[in-house]
What does this fold into?
Amino acid sequence: MPNPFADESSEIKGKVEIRFEKRPEIRFLSHLDIARAFDRALRRAGIPVRFTLGFNPRPRIVFPVPIETGTASLDDVAELELAGEMAPEEIASRLGKALPPGLSVLRISPIPCRRRPRRARELRYAMDFSSARWKILPEDVEAFLKAGKVPVLRRAPAGAGRRAVDARPAVAEVRLDGTTILLRLRPLPGAFVRAGDVLAGIAGRDVREMAGVYIVRLCVEMEESGPEAGWTIGADRLKDGPRRGDAPVGAPACPADRKDDPRV
It folds into this structure.
C-alpha cells in the first residue's frame, strides 16, 4: 500500500541518520530481513519518506555497512531520505513503535541532503570465543599483527566456490581480553572484511569453524563523526564481555556520537 504521506516524484526535503540496535535474539536474521523489517515499519509509521520509482517502489533507505548474519549490533546506522518535514523526535517515536521486537531506535539525527551515502570510517566489534572448540593465545594475536598478509578463505557469492580475502590490512587494532577479542576494523574499498574473517585469521582456522563464536558490533563510526585521536579499545568498553541472551551487551556507543540519553 503506497504511503499517503510520501511523494515519489518529489525532491529530497530532508535526510536523517537512524541509529538502531539489532539485539542478540535476532542476530541470525540476514541483512535482507532487516531491510524488509524497516521497509514495512516505515510504511506503517506514516513517515514522509521518499520512494524509488517503478513497479515495486521501496523507501529510499541505505545501510552503509550491512550487519553480517549471526552478528548482533548495539549501535548501527541507516540513512533515510524524506519527502516532507517531520521532527527527528517524531520519526523516532513512530518508527520505534512500528519496528518488530529485536530492533529498536536509539536516536534520529539530521544529516546533509546529498545523494551519495556517507562511508563508514571504523567498525568496532567484540567477539567471544569461550564456547568454541578452539582457543586463542596472546602469541596468536601477536603473530597476526606482525604478518604482512593473512589470507582467509570464504564462500564467494552466487555459488562461485571459495575465494581468499586478506584480513590483515583492514585491522586498525585488535586485543585479547580473556576469551574476548576486541577489534577496530577499517572498511576498505572493494573488499569488505568481516569480523569473522579476522577471527579466523588470528585463530588459524577456517571461516566455517566459527560456530560457537558470539560476535557483537559495538558501533559504526561514520566519516563525519569527528576525530577521535588516541582512542584505544580495551576491556573497559565491555561491562562483562558479550553474552547470549536478551540483555544489551557492553558499552554500545561510539564516544563521539553518544548523548547523555541515547534513546530518543
Q: What stands out?
A: The radius of gyration is 19 Å.
